[in-house]
Design a protein that fits this description.
Residues 60-157 form the Methyltransferase domain. By secondary structure, the protein is of the alpha/beta class. 44% of the residues lie in helices and 20% in strands. It has a seven-stranded mixed beta sheet with strand order 3-2-1-4-5-7-6, sandwiched between helices. It is globular and about 60 Å long. It binds S-adenosylmethionine.
Amino acid sequence: MTDPGQYSVAPEERLQQDCGMSLRPYEIAEARHRILNPFTEDKLDLLGEVCHPSPGARHLDLACGKGELLNLWSSQYGVHGTGVDLSEVFLTAARERANELNVTDRVRFIHSEAATYASKRAEPSTYDIVSCIGATWIGGGLTGTLDLMRPLLRPGGLILVGEIFWNTTPPPEAASALGLDNHPCVSLAATAERIEQSGFELLDMILANPDSWDRYTASQWWTISDWLRDNPDDPEVPAMRDFLRQCRTSHLEYGRQYLGWGVFILRPAIPLPNP
Ligand SMILES: C[S@@+](CC[C@H](N)C(=O)[O-])C[C@H]1O[C@@H](n2cnc3c(N)ncnc32)[C@H](O)[C@@H]1O
């Protein structure tokens, strides 16, 4: 049986196939974002309050985007962080933010494919926190990503994973409209079940809501619109016009109502004693 947590084509890759582009549409659309997920600053702060990392805690953030989580936690809690991402544009922003927050001695940002970094370059049993916030395609889905992350944790460490789920059962066309044909999204309860089946205990969670989704998604529309006006001769204009149209329609028709997202805070479950 196919693991419902597995899917093969990331939204970025799908877009690459559709438009001959890769991360570029996201780099354009999210140019004014610091947080590249449906969390507001308040929700990110709440995540810090809930996890309350210790000073000197070692944190690996896979697919770190602009590194806001690591930079903030380094500034607020004294975390020592490594962020890994494929986008040089986002990594440059992450390093600039580290400078701004005066944490360059505690964080570093590495250009690498995240699964390769996790499986080949990162030291096993090293990190107090391993996170992947909104990029579980790196491991072929939630289950595979948790498998990638687990060996990197120190005893007592935490995993933070950002994942989508359905708020309520959507109409059949919603998955396709949202670009989720290859990402079998499940309910919140089924997501928790998948986490447990992967050998983790779900300790807490912080969820996005329609307003925080708007801050992530709706706020991209203006950025893209400005980019289209400022770059009329760019060869990517037609694809970006389609991207804008599709992003706006799918959010209004389906995403805002049906799509949930949250950061799940986990630790490895204690194995049950043999009967
Ligand atoms: C939805 S964003 C989340 C970024 C960040 N975790 C945050 O919450 O702000 C997804 C990120 O994954 C990165 N990415 C996509 N595929 C990747 C891969 N295979 N390896 C590393 N980074 C990847 C993108 O460049 C982007 O920064």
